[in-house]
Structures are given as C-alpha cells and as structure tokens.
Design brief:
- The longest helix has 25 residues.
- The protein has one domain.
- It is of the alpha/beta class.
- The protein has a seven-stranded mixed sheet.
- The protein is built from four helices and seven strands, in the order H-H-E-E-E-H-E-H-E-E-E.
Length: 209
C-alpha cells in the first residue's frame, strides 16, 4: 500500500524556517508542486485499489504530513473542506492559513464547480470552514478518467453556463480556470458574497493509466 512507501522516500522532509507572512503561501504552493506529483507516481506504481475520494485523501494527507515539518496538515473527513493547513507549533483554535478542497473527476455531478457539494461554489458562498478570512486556497482534482485537457474544457464549460444563467452569485470569466505557469496546473479567481475575491490554485492528479 501507499503507506509502505513512506519509509522509503528519498526526499527529506521540507522545512520552511520563519518566513515572512507574504511568503508563507508561496512556500505551501511550492511544497504542493513538489510532493503532489510524487504521491501521484506512488499511487500509479502500486496499482492502488483505492478509488473513493475520502480514502485517497487520507493516504495523501499522511504522505504530505510525513514530508513537511513547518505546517500541520489535517484531513477533515465528512466535515467541510477536505484539507486544513496550519502553521506549527499547535495553537488551539488557530485559524487555518490555507485550505484544499478535493473532488473526483469523473463524477456523476458537477461537484467540482457547483451545487450543494460544489467545490468552487462553497468558496464563493463563504460557507463555514471555507476560508472567509483567506485570499488564497486550492482545489485538488483526482482524475479517474479522461485527461486534464478534457476536464479543463468540461469545467470551464460548466462555468460558462453559470455565467450566462441568472444566479444570486456573480459568475464571470475570472471564475474560469486558466493555465498557471508558476505552481499549479491551473489558477482561477472568484468573487464572494461579502469578502474580497479568493484565488484558487488547481492541482490535478491523474490517478488512472
């Protein structure tokens, strides 16, 4: 199983010594850029039988926490946003500095974008636990069929439909995913009900051969 790979990791744990506040998010994004592809490679090399979203996220949270020292990464199964990241040392009731929402692709609904379980929509609506105090967070896509190009076109098509249809939420072209040249696969920016827009970094893992 994936857990068996952790002790064989050739990469040292990543440490981010006292960083200026404005550099903290960049440090997290850099970490994700390095280690998410490693997890993807291990997942495929083991022909993992894991397919459910929460089961993948549990293994991923273990892998990420194993490889990082300066942050706490907690998987919130069935309790709102999937991954909560806080700065060490532990402080009771400290607010997270970064959130990650995970969604399977394919899915039988448009959960990546909209609806009661919609990843992007939850951030736009400022639902409890979805980082009303944050200006940046991330989305994870677990691709279990088709390609990144296919899902980019599909998701942006869903957002186009939201733009053209009336809604109590404001959807416009900034909500659409665009290529990110620095850290993630894609990046998007989303207006919210009361707070300034939030930027989402989209990291997609291709979990099928």
């Amino acid at each position: 199983m994936i857990k068996s790979q952790l002790n064989n990791s050739v990469q040292p744990s990543v440490e981010f010594p006292s960083l200026p506040k404005e550099q903290t998010i960049k440090a997290i994004l850099k970490f994700l850029k390095i280690y998410l592809p490693q997890f993807n490679k291990i997942f495929l090399s083991e022909n993992s039988p894991i397919h459910k979203e929460d089961d993948i996220s549990r293994e991923l949270s273990l892998f990420l926490q194993y490889n990082i020292e300066s942050f706490l990464i907690r998987f919130e199964a069935k309790e709102g946003v999937d991954f909560v990241i806080k700065i060490k040392p532990y402080i009771m009731n400290a607010k997270p500095i970064f959130l990650i929402e995970a969604k399977r692709l394919p899915t039988h609904s448009r959960d990546y974008v909209q609806g009661n379980n919609g990843g992007i929509e939850r951030f736009k609506r400022e639902l409890p636990g979805y980082g009303k105090h944050l200006l940046q967070s991330a989305m994870l896509g677990y691709i279990q069929g088709k390609s990144k190009d296919y899902w980019l076109k599909r998701i942006n098509g869903w957002i186009d439909e939201k733009i053209t249809n009336e809604s109590e939420l404001n959807w416009d072209t900034s909500d659409k995913l665009k290529k990110d040249k620095e850290f993630a696969d894609f990046i998007s920016k989303h207006s919210r009900i009361t707070e300034p827009p939030i930027t989402l970094h989209h990291f997609w893992l291709v979990l099928h051969k």
